[in-house]
Structures are given as C-alpha cells and as structure tokens.
C-alpha cells in the first residue's frame, strides 16, 4: 500500500489552475522529487499532501486510507507527516533538544528523551542538544530540522527546497545524509526542488512538472536518456538542435541517419543532441563526420568545444560538445566527431521553420 497517493488532484487559485489533475504514488522508503520551474505547482502539491491547503478536487490517501476528498479533510497534525522547509523553522527560544521533542506529545518523558537522542544521533547532532538555534550554522540547523521531522517516525516526510539556504559545498554532504536517514527509517519522501542536479542526486524517481501537470515521472536515468518531450530534455542539460524531415523511418542529421520508427514519413522533426552526446570518433563513416574546432573553453572538470561541420551549403553547421577537461584542442584543428545515440532525441515539430 502506498505511503502517499494523490489521485486526480486539482487546485485553483482564482482563475489559475495551480495543480491540474495530478496523480502520484509514493511507496514506503521511496524518495520522489517534484522538479519544475518556478510557479509550476510543486509547493501547492506538498501543501495539499500535508493538509495545509484544503483539497478542492481529487483524493489524497495515506497508507491506503483517505485523508482528504470531497467530504473528508484530516487535519495536518493527524496525518503522520514530517515537514522540513527551506527556512528550517526552528523555534528560536527552545534548545535543540526541545525543538526535536516538540511534536512528541504522546510519549512518556523517558521515551521522549531517548527518541530525541536517537533522532539527533542519526543526524550527527547529539552533542548540540543543549544549544540554541542561533548558535548553529545553517547546515546544523537543517540537520536539527530533519531530526525534528523524523523523530515522531512519520510514514511520510515532505521537504520543500530544504537545502537552498546552504552553501554549495555543504549542500552535497547534507543531501547525502538526508537520503541516508530517510532510507534507514523506511520513510516515504516527497521533496520539492527546482534544481535538476539535486533531484538526480537524491531521488529514486523524479516527477517533472509544468503548468500544474506532471509531464513525466521516471527514474533519473530514464529522464536523462529517454525524455518524453523537448521540455524534459532541456531540463537536464544543454542541447544542440537541428531540424529534419522523416524519411521512411529515418531522419538525416549532421551525423548520419537516426531512426524515427514512430513518426510518419514526411513529418518535420526537431533533433536534440546533448552536448555530451557529441563524442570523439575514429573515422568518417555512417555516423562519424569531420569537424573543425572554432573555440575551446576549459571549465574545470569538463571542456566545452564549439565545432563547425561543413555541410556544402552557405551556412556551416555549428555544434557544441562537452568533453573531458584534458581535451583542449586549438582553433582550426580538424577532428572526427560521432554521436552517442543514447543522448540524441527526435521529436515531431509543428513546422520546419
Ligand atoms: P516555486 O518553485 O517558485 O516555489 P512552485 O512550483 O512551488 O514555485 P507554487 O508555489 O505551487 O509553485 O505555486 C503555483 C502557482 O500558484 C503560482 O503561479 C503561484 O503564484 C500561485 N499561488 C500559490 N499560492 C497561492 C496563493 N495562496 N494565492 C494565490 N496564488 C497562489
């Protein structure tokens, strides 16, 4: 039975359909990210799941039982949900220990004490139990917020952009720890983020949202190598774009033909190729083409190389390739390029313009 399931959930703010017929299930121990541009409805879904926003349409279940529908509206405190927000929301006048103990009202004093200690140990903050929030760093406050959310052993934890206030180097460490703690506890987690790398780093599955709808729900690697549409493809990195026409199950690209089995003969298509999908080739053949280097930029772990591919027409084709940083060719150098076909996508386009 799913820890959380949203069935055809919709929500309007006035005329705006902020959430439009969204369905989503999360199993115990599963980590799902809601990912999408600002205003696409991510936080509203989280608030509907928590019961912080009254449900207007659809059904919300937890562990199979309805917590919200047309007739039922279970209050947030009765939903067994842990919440962590961007601003930590710790009580400034309470010690770390008392902050974490706050939601543990149904336990005896000694049980409460040991539960708080256990949660603080899980996040590595037991030594700070007597400290007050203002004396802690952002990362430490975020750990305490996580301990407070998991201490009541909720079935579901909801995280809303929890790491955006942290500096970049600390972020990866806290992301790692957060996933570990939630997985150890077998908690189902729904996290809102607008950062694709963060979603890929943490999630078992990612729900990509656009204008109140889920566009694609899949594992990080499925989304990266098999995006449902150009919007999803663009979300996970920079792309080269070419136009083409389907010709009996294929489209001609600068790198030779690509299969288009599901598109009709004669239809215009957009071909999208990830920058890292343009790779060094051995020789000019079916997919290998000779290109000349226009410009190379060394970017630390990778380099970004601009190429020109002569195509016999007035305008040469330009492509960008992301390569290892040891590859820093001089402008003008001739290089054979190939396509990593896993990172090339063909979508039907409304016109060839
Ligand atoms: P962000 O990443 O910027 O936080 P989001 O994807 O979480 O965005 P939501 O906060 O769910 O988006 O908002 C969805 C849409 O609903 C937005 O257009 C927002 O302006 C609107 N909205 C959200 N809350 C309210 C409200 N209380 N009243 C009116 N409109 C609202």
**Share in helix:** 10-25%
- Topology pattern, helix = H, strand = E: EEEHEEEHHHEHEHEEHHEEEEEEEEEE
Number of domains: 2
Major β-sheet annotation? 6 strands, mixed
CATH topology-level name of the largest domain: Rossmann fold
- Assigned CATH superfamily of the largest domain: P-loop containing nucleotide triphosphate hydrolases
CATH architecture classification of the largest domain: 3-Layer(aba) Sandwich
What compounds are bound to the protein? adenosine-5'-triphosphate
Could you tell me the strand content as a percent range?
Answer: 35-45%
Strand order of the largest sheet: 6-7-8-3-9-10
Total helical segments: 8
Low-confidence runs: none
Mean pLDDT: 91
Task: Please give the radius of gyration in angstroms.
Answer: 25 Å
Task: Calculate the terminal CA-CA distance, rounded to whole Å.
Answer: 49 Å
């Amino acid at each position: 039975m799913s820890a959380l399931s949203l069935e055809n959930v919709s929500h309007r703010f006035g005329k705006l359909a902020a959430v439009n017929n969204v369905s989503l299930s999360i199993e115990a121990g599963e980590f799902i990210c809601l990912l999408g541009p600002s205003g696409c409805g991510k936080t509203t879904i989280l608030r509907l799941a928590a019961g912080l926003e009254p449900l207007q349409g659809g059904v919300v279940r937890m562990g199979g039982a309805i917590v919200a529908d047309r007739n039922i509206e279970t209050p947030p405190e009765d939903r067994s949900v842990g919440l962590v927000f961007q601003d930590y929301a710790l009580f400034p006048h309470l010690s770390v220990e008392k902050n974490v103990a706050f939601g543990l009202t149904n336990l005896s004093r000694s049980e409460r004490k040991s539960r708080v200690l256990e949660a603080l140990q899980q996040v590595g903050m037991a030594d700070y139990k007597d400290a007050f929030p203002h004396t802690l760093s952002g990362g430490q406050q975020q750990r305490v917020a996580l301990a407070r959310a998991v201490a009541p052993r909720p079935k579901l934890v909801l995280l809303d952009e929890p790491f955006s206030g942290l500096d970049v180097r600390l972020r990866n460490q806290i992301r790692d720890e957060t996933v570990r703690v939630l997985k150890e506890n077998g908690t189902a987690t729904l996290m809102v983020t607008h950062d694709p790398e963060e979603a890929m780093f943490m999630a078992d599955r990612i729900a990509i949202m656009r204008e109140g709808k889920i566009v694609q729900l899949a594992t990080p690697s499925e989304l990266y190598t098999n995006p449902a549409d150009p919007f999803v493809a663009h979300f996970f990195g920079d792309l080269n774009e070419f136009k083409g026409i389907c010709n009996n199950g294929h489209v001609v690209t600068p790198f030779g033909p690509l299969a288009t089995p599901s598109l009709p003969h004669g239809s215009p298509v957009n071909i999208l190729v990830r920058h890292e999908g343009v790779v060094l080739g051995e020789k000019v053949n079916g997919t290998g083409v000779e290109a000349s280097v226009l410009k190379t930029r060394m970017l630390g772990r990778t380099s970004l190389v601009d190429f020109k591919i002569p195509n016999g027409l007035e305008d040469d084709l330009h492509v960008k390739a992301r390569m290892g940083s040891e590859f820093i060719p001089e402008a003008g150098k001739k290089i054979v390029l190939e396509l990593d076909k896993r990172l090339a996508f063909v979508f039907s386009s409304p016109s060839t313009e």
